[in-house]
Amino acid sequence: MITGIDRLVAAINGEKSDRIPVFCNLLDQGVNELGLASLYDYYQSGEYVAEAQLKMREKYGYDNVWSLFYVGKEAELLGCRKILFSPDGPPNVEHFVIQSYDDIHNLEIPDDIIHHPVFAEELKCLQILKREVGGRYPICGYVTAGMALPALLMGMDKWFELLFMGPPEVRDELLTKCSLFCQRHIAALRELGADVIVYANPFGSTDFVPLPYILKTGIPWMKRDLSAGLDGIVYYCGGARFNQVLDTVISQIGIETYYLSPLDDIAAGKQIINGCGLTCGVINDIKLIDWSEQEIKQEVKRMLAAGMAGGKFLFGTILMPYKIPERNIRAMLDAVYEYGQW
Amino acid sequence: MILKNVIAAYNEAVFDTDRDKAFEVIHEAIAQGLTPEDIVFKVVIPAMELMIKAISEDFDANLAQHFMASQIASQVTDEMVALFQSSPEIIGHIVIGTSHGDMHTLGKRIVSGCLRSLMIDVIDLGVNVSAERFVDAALEHDASIIAISSMMVHTARSEQGCLAVRQLLRERGLEERIKIVVGGAPYTWDTELYKLVQADAWASDGVSAAKVIKDLIMEMHK
Q1: What's the angle, vertex CA B183, arms to CA B65 and CA B93, rounded to 5?
Q2: What is the CATH number of the domain that holds A177?
Q3: Coil, helix or strand at residue B86
Q4: Number of A:B CB contacts under 8 A?
Q5: Residue-number span of the structural domain to which A207 is assigned
Q6: I need a surface site. Which of A118, A275, A328, B153 has the fewest CB within 10 A?
Q7: With an 8 Å Cβ cutoff, are A157 and B63 in contact?
Q8: pLDDT in tens, A100-138
Q9: Structural domains of chain A, count
Q10: With an 8 Å Cβ cutoff, are B71 and A161 in contact?
Q11: Can you tell me the distance from the alpha carbon of B205 to that of A16, in angstroms, rounded to the nearest whole number?
Q12: What is the ipTM of this complex?
């Protein structure tokens, strides 16, 4: 039987498996799979998250599983004491660890993430996933880039203020600490068996900052974040566009997988990547809430027509909104399984 | 420095997100005899309107430029208004906040900065704002616009968000007096979403939102 790892390895090598790999990112939906009362209850347990990830992969037949609970978990590892849970969407960071520049100076980066008490449930989740599907289905981890992490610690507007108008020495102290956390987080996930690490950096997108800023400031910090190596690293800008940055990231950093924005031109992205790595075409999953099954089928067909020629291509979603009806998830996947065959 | 040169130099600084340079241009212009009123009405507001126009014509501005343009304009305006001979005429009042359950602050800060530079009074209600609070604050401050920012699809579509604000306005007979403008990432990903949540208008970015809101205020004042 062909596994998700088989499909992914074939795609990386430019070979053809039965179909293209499909990364379907269902997180909050796990609460329904287990019939739990709330997302708060669901995210208290690594066993729950692992069980739901395994069930959903089995049920829908896509190729990956996630060790990510929610993005705010990284803030919790750095001292966040309150997360705002919602009945129908991802949890938000409610308590910002950094309220003043003194808090930056006092911010402590854990030496040992794996044995940190806040990481205990993610550790359980990763151990279960590794035991159950390791070597057969790619286990995905999520790491926020050092330049984006401050947004989780102080709020995006305060981070913009410090980044573009604040004292350089304070900004650099925070970036140095956040990059160190990023490096340690990547190392921990690798040690625990994550095959794929989605490196999330909206500041690597020209929707966020000007290209000269990325070239001069962003790239050196990304190199620092990724100094331990690029195995399994996926470049992702949180859904923001980055086709304009692709050639620089390829030549200066050498990442080998690019998770495009749904707003990027897939064919243009593939042309720039030009066989230097994998291209992931990503669907606008917010539209999946309201699209008809026919519209979904047409969109998937269009995306695959733009991306499949020449191989080295996979299909992906962002973090699928909770409100997407199950029939639409199935319609999307059925279309990929149909049009994504080799 | 003649006015035309001041405008050109200030605009260039704003587009380059160079706050220090923008203030240098303004301070030099004051030293050469321009009044604070001239700075706001003949430099800052035209520069903001130029940026709005450029974005509407597909200028590839990014979030950092939007943020810096709004902060520079707002800070220059604050400094100049303190030096005005008499208080400036405010063209309208709005309340702004993030929708229920949403903690993301950047969008509303960009919008607020732009609006302040356009002489619109902004009452910032903060984050995770309930529908009742939006409506009560709009009445308290005589605001004609409720601006709701949402960064996540579930907070944009929530029945406790914009939909609840609409319901309250309807129940209290306020729909003619108070309009709702929404913005944030989910609306950019789904450009029809503002209709689904029953807003009166939406904007694709913070700077454009200032124009949408200003135009709506002017229309309501007709």
Answers
A1: 90
A2: 3.20.20.210
A3: coil
A4: 86
A5: 4-339
A6: A275
A7: no
A8: 999 999 999 999 999 999 999 999 999 999 999 999 999
A9: 1
A10: yes
A11: 42
A12: 0.91
